């Protein structure tokens, strides 16, 4: 396991997403990426703090330590998918014959 110094030294933590009042940040350490949460629902812990999209990781060290302690500092697999799929609505078949999910009618002749 990484030490806290290895995690926060010269790294940045970047906001990833939020679910049910929990913010998730990603920190890249070497070639690996790790995710950790910050629970905005815990007002005693975060108070009225405003969180921004990117921090030096040392700024969030308290939350990283908490995540490590609670087994919530997790290594993530990072996949970059670059694919464009173009489908014409008139080429699709939907549950309602002759209709599209956008309220348009299709020509099924």
Structural features, described:
With 109 residues, this protein is of the alpha+beta class. It has a domain at 4-76. The chain has helices spanning 4-8, 43-46, 61-69; strands spanning 12-19, 22-29, 32-39, 54-56, 74-76. The chain has a five-stranded antiparallel β-sheet with strand order 4-1-2-3-5. β1 and β2 form a beta hairpin.
Please describe the topology of this protein:
Elements: H1 4-8, E1 12-19, E2 22-29, E3 32-39, H2 43-46, E4 54-56, H3 61-69, E5 74-76
Antiparallel strand pairs: 1-2, 1-4, 2-3, 3-5
Percentage of residues assigned to helices: 10-25%
What is the string of SSEs from the N terminus onward? HEEEHEHE
- Cα Rg: 22 Å
Look at the helices and sheets and give the structural class: alpha+beta
Low-pLDDT residue spans: 80-92
Mean pLDDT across residues: 81
Question: How many individual β-strands?
Answer: 5
Q: What is the strand content?
A: 25-35%
N- to C-terminal separation?
A: 62 Å
Overall morphology: globular
Main sheet summary: 5 strands, antiparallel
In DSSP terms (H or I, runs of 4 or more residues), the helix count works out at: 3
Strand arrangement, largest sheet?
4-1-2-3-5
